[in-house]
């Protein structure tokens, strides 16, 4: 049997060789060439503790410095989950504040912990003990801290926040949040929604506390996983915002990722050398098998591969950094959930993934007997247009004379109306939704506002004609 495959290589020849892990015992630090090695990175580079910690600090400062975006006058909200990334982040900032004058970090900092215990299956006691540990850690590092709970992200009003000293647990909105998650049919969309709600809450709390930037602890491994899983869940168009150092989708509050050059392994070494503890808490898919969600399966794929091929994380991350999409420049009409420019606007001449999905759905609903041709695509468009016109006529409660559309509560909505204001990835989260009750209240209200505005614009333009 021929052993040459399609690419002209012998079997196995084209694959990258596995990284051979060097033996650390008696190995000497490659940086100072003097001390005995304590750390081995990339399977071959040996460092002593002193050189490793010095290079970690340098890497953090370089990530912050090269963008020139963080200024001494900034007020920064640091999102602290208790995991390795944000714990190391707090420690690095604290150390930076005690550097010599010309190197000192002098921006104002506030720490925020979001309590997600309600969705992660923690008991009230477990939540209390986690918050207690977070509070202790934050106080030991001399930061001012606040706590809020994830359900604050779905309500229409300003989020409730408490100082860490109060050790208060807000459990009033737990049911609303768990009910919302229970309406979603799979863990991929549940994880997506939680991520978007978390991002939204960072911005809401930053606004409330007068902060103009948010630091999150996303590390290189997390981001490599997110690059691949985002593409799988239809968010490829938003990659530069979701994984880059700067996420400036909200014009007044920037989210920054200063830990993006640290791998999980480097963070573990950093925390160990500084006697810092990770505060463990379960996640939504903890104790679930690897196939439960696209994100969890991607995590296993990336971490397993990186175990044998040490360049995996950095290769994926650097490749992701080079990706750029035009959609990022159109910010007039952002998605009401993730605040990204809508990637669902399709021009007549373009063939898009959305059209392909619509056609696939159309074909599936028609049954196996029918034959199709390209004209069917235009039928779908016409059907959509008719549906749109019908909704426009239905939306107003025959109130043109009385002007009751000025109150946004009077606008009748269907899920299809909401979908119009969602990007492709966010549409997929709610693809099984068939009622407005299955959506977060802030989204429904945002759509009412937008539709009201559109109705008013249309009325004005008709009046002027
Ligand atoms: Zn050394
Ligand atoms: Zn979106």
TrEMBL record:
Q: Which InterPro entries match?
A: CTU2, Rossmann-like_a/b/a_fold
Q: Where in the cell is it found?
A: Cytoplasm
Q: What's this protein's name?
A: Cytoplasmic tRNA 2-thiolation protein 2
Q: What is its main location?
A: cytoplasm
**The keyword Membrane is assigned to this record:** no
Name its GO BP terms in alphabetical order: protein urmylation; tRNA wobble position uridine thiolation
Which organism was this protein described from?
A: Cephus cinctus (Wheat stem sawfly)
Pathway listed for it? tRNA modification; 5-methoxycarbonylmethyl-2-thiouridine-tRNA biosynthesis
At the highest ranks, the source species' classification is: Eukaryota, Metazoa, Ecdysozoa, Arthropoda, Hexapoda
């Amino acid at each position: 049997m021929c052993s040459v495959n399609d690419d002209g290589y012998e079997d196995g020849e084209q694959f990258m060789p596995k990284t051979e892990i060097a033996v650390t015992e008696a190995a000497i630090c490659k940086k100072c060439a003097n001390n005995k090695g304590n750390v081995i990175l990339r399977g071959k580079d040996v460092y002593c503790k002193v050189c490793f910690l010095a290079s970690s600090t340098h890497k953090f400062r370089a990530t912050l410095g090269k963008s020139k975006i963080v200024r001494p006058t900034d007020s920064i909200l640091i999102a602290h989950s208790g995991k390795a990334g944000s714990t190391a982040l707090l420690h690095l900032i604290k150390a930076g504040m005690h550097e010599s004058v010309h190197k000192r970090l002098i921006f104002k900092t506030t720490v925020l912990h979001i309590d997600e215990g309600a969705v992660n299956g923690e008991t009230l006691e477990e939540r209390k003990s986690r918050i207690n540990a977070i509070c202790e850690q934050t106080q030991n590092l001399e930061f001012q801290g606040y706590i809020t709970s994830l359900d604050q992200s779905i309500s229409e009003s300003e989020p409730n926040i408490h100082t860490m000293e109060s050790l208060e647990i807000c459990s009033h909105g737990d049911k609303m949040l768990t009910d919302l998650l229970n309406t979603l049919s799979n863990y991929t969309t549940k994880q997506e929604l939680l991520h978007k709600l978390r991002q939204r809450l960072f911005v809401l709390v930053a606004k409330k506390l007068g902060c103009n930037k948010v630091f999150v602890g996303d590390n290189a491994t997390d981001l490599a996983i997110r690059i691949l899983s985002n593409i799988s869940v239809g968010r490829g168009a938003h990659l530069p915002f979701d994984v880059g150092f700067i996420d400036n989708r909200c014009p007044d509050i920037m989210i920054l990722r200063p830990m993006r050059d640290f791998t999980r392994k480097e963070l573990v070494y950093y925390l160990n050398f500084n006697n810092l503890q990770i505060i463990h808490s379960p996640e939504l898919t903890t104790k679930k098998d690897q196939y439960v969600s696209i994100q969890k399966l991607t995590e296993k794929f990336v971490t397993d591969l990186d175990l044998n091929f040490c360049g995996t994380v950095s290769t994926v991350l650097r490749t992701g950094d080079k990706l750029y999409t035009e959609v990022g420049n159109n910010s007039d009409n952002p998605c009401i959930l993730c605040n990204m420019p809508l990637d669902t606007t399709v021009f007549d001449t373009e063939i898009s993934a959305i059209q392909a999905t619509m056609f696939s759905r159309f074909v599936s609903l028609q049954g196996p007997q029918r034959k199709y041709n390209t004209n069917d695509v235009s039928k779908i468009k016409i059907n959509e247009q008719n549906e749109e016109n019908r909704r426009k006529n239905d939306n107003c409660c025959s109130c043109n004379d009385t002007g009751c559309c000025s109150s946004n509560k009077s606008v009748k909505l269907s899920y299809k109306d909401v979908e119009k204001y969602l990007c492709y990835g966010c549409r997929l989260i709610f693809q099984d939704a068939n009622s407005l009750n299955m959506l977060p209240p802030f989204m429904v209200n945002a759509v009412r506002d937008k539709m009201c505005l559109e109705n008013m614009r249309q009325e004005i333009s008709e009046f002027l004609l």
